[in-house]
Write a structure and sequence with these properties.
By secondary structure, the chain is an alpha+beta fold. It has a domain of 67 residues. The chain has a 3-stranded antiparallel β-sheet with strand order 1-2-3. Strand 2 and strand 3 form a beta hairpin. Pfam families: FlaG (PF03646). This is Flagellar protein FlaG. Keywords: Cell projection, Cilium, Flagellum.
């Protein structure tokens, strides 16, 4: 499983740096579990806190890009553990961050 973060909003990120993504899987019909859900319960837009979180993620992404870095999230095939890697824009591994330290990185705003 790979959780690479895709670009959010306009960016100067060159498509030449992207690794090819796997072919999309065909969509399968999803069975309806609850018949009492209607379109009336879906809001017109996401809640404010979701929009704020998306904005914060976009700013963090842009800050990483300005530093020439990106984060890659994946699951180790053998252990099933989450791995977080800091890479340069050419895909070279700079360092690995233990999942327990990711919150520290996010709250201090730095990888150093």
């Amino acid at each position: 499983m790979n959780l690479d973060v895709a670009p959010v909003g306009p960016t100067s990120y060159s498509p030449a740096h992207r690794t090819p993504s796997p072919a999309p899987r065909p969509l399968q019909p999803v069975p309806v579990v609850r018949a009492d859900i209607s379109g009336d319960t879906i809001p017109d837009s996401p809640p404010r806190e979701v929009l704020d979180a998306m904005d914060a993620a976009s700013r963090a992404y842009q800050q990483l890009r300005a530093q020439g870095r990106e984060l890659r999230f994946s699951q180790d095939a053998d252990s099933g553990r989450l791995t977080i890697e800091v890479r340069d824009l050419d895909g070279n591994l700079l360092r690995r961050i233990p999942p327990s330290k990711l919150l520290d990185v996010a709250t201090t705003g730095g990888l150093d």
